[in-house]
């Protein structure tokens, strides 16, 4: 079976990207990092963090960034609700 625009892996299935996303960091407007467009694991290593649960791919991205720099995030709360994270940052 063929689907226009799909790439074949020649293994067991064909796949097509249907969505892309990016991770964000929410901080209060008066926070020292609020004006930065990008920052590093070192920039936030001393910050208390609220992250999505371990099952979320964004959690793995955060952990990998810290691990690459030889540290770990200061996670205080984990949740499966994005709105919960946003409410605490406000």
User: Mean pLDDT, rounded to whole units?
Assistant: 80
**Spatial gap, N to C terminus:** 49 Å
Helical/strand content category: alpha+beta
Radius of gyration equals: 17 Å
Instruction: Report the portion of residues in β strands.
Output: 15-25%
Number of helices: 3
Q: Numbering strands along the chain, what is their spatial order in the largest sheet?
A: 1-2
- What is the overall shape? globular
Quick one: how many beta strands?
A: 4
- Give the quaternary arrangement of the chains: single chain
Keywords:
two-stranded antiparallel ribbon; 90 residues; alpha+beta; 27% helix; 17% strand; two-stranded parallel ribbon
Secondary-structure topology with pairs:
Elements: E1 7-8, E2 14-15, H1 41-44, E3 48-52, H2 57-68, E4 74-79, H3 82-89
Parallel strand pairs: 3-4
Antiparallel strand pairs: 1-2
Could you explain the architecture of this structure?
The chain is α+β, with helices and mostly antiparallel strands and 90 residues long. It is 27% helix and 17% strand. The chain has three helices and four strands; from the N terminus they run ββαβαβα. The chain has helices at residues 41-44, 57-68, 82-89; strands spanning 7-8, 14-15, 48-52, 74-79. The strands form two sheets. The chain has a two-stranded antiparallel sheet. The chain has a two-stranded parallel ribbon with strand order 3-4.
In short:
By secondary structure, the chain is an alpha+beta fold.
């Amino acid at each position: 079976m063929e689907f226009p625009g799909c790439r074949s892996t020649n293994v067991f299935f064909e796949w097509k990207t249907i969505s892309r996303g990016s991770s964000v960091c929410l901080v209060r407007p008066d926070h020292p990092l609020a004006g930065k467009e990008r920052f590093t694991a070192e920039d936030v290593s001393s910050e208390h963090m609220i992250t999505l649960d371990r099952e979320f791919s964004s959690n793995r991205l955060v952990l990998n960034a810290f691990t690459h720099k030889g540290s770990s995030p200061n996670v205080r709360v984990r949740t499966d609700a994005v709105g919960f994270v946003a409410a605490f940052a406000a």
